[in-house]
């Protein structure tokens, strides 16, 4: 059965405050990286799926929207590559 | 001054246990996604940098290795795109 590697990218929606990103930004400013702005911290989830491509894509779409992200606060997208 | 959008991808090294990934994997198995394996949870950090491309690239290399990741336990890579 074919095997696929997937990457799911989960980021906070632009309107949601990101205290972790703000903290990183302030730390960088103190380290003389004052030209860095707009730091946002998101998640990268890697997974392996077995099955036919069409089924795996539908499954990944569902997992991304329903399990790996909170659609109220987060945007999510995925990439699939044959292993 | 040119402005760049950077994405930094931080993932645990393959030899490091990932309890968060294991938990997601078990949750997916209970939700009838038993064909999913090897779940690993990493970080995606987005930032904006101002400056010349060569300087920004050197700066991003340094920030990625010294601030945004722990090279003992994590792998990190970055992508840069003109804003």
Automatic annotation (TrEMBL), chains A, B:
Q: Name one GO cellular component term.
A: cytoplasm
Give the source's domain of life in one word.
Answer: Bacteria
SUPFAM superfamilies (alphabetical): PurS-like (SSF82697)
Task: Return the EC number.
Answer: 6.3.5.3
Q: Where in the cell is it found?
A: Cytoplasm
What keywords is this UniProt entry annotated with? ATP-binding, Cytoplasm, Ligase, Nucleotide-binding, Purine biosynthesis
Which GO biological process entries does UniProt record here?
'de novo' IMP biosynthetic process
| Pfam families listed in its UniProt record | PurS
Which pathway is recorded for this entry? Purine metabolism; IMP biosynthesis via de novo pathway; 5-amino-1-(5-phospho-D-ribosyl)imidazole from N(2)-formyl-N(1)-(5-phospho-D-ribosyl)glycinamide: step 1/2
| InterPro entries in UniProt | PurS, PurS-like_sf
Q: Quickly give the catalysed reaction.
A: N(2)-formyl-N(1)-(5-phospho-beta-D-ribosyl)glycinamide + L-glutamine + ATP + H2O = 2-formamido-N(1)-(5-O-phospho-beta-D-ribosyl)acetamidine + L-glutamate + ADP + phosphate + H(+)
Molecular function in Gene Ontology: ATP binding; phosphoribosylformylglycinamidine synthase activity
Task: Identify the enzyme class.
Answer: ligase
- Assembly and oligomerization: Part of the FGAM synthase complex composed of 1 PurL, 1 PurQ and 2 PurS subunits.
- State the family it belongs to: Belongs to the PurS family.
> What function is annotated for this protein?
Part of the phosphoribosylformylglycinamidine synthase complex involved in the purines biosynthetic pathway. Catalyzes the ATP-dependent conversion of formylglycinamide ribonucleotide (FGAR) and glutamine to yield formylglycinamidine ribonucleotide (FGAM) and glutamate. The FGAM synthase complex is composed of three subunits. PurQ produces an ammonia molecule by converting glutamine to glutamate. PurL transfers the ammonia molecule to FGAR to form FGAM in an ATP-dependent manner.
What protein name applies here?
A: Phosphoribosylformylglycinamidine synthase subunit PurS
Provide the taxonomic classification: Bacteria, Thermotogati, Deinococcota, Deinococci, Deinococcales
Gene encoding this polypeptide?
purS
């Amino acid at each position: 059965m074919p095997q696929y590697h997937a990457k799911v990218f989960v980021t906070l929606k632009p309107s949601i405050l990101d205290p972790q990103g703000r903290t990183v930004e302030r730390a960088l400013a103190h380290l003389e990286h004052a030209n860095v702005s707009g730091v946002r911290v998101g998640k990268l989830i890697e997974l392996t799926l077995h099955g036919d491509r069409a089924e795996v894509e539908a499954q990944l779409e569902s997992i991304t929207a329903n399990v790996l992200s909170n659609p109220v606060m987060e945007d999510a997208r995925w990439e699939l590559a044959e292993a």
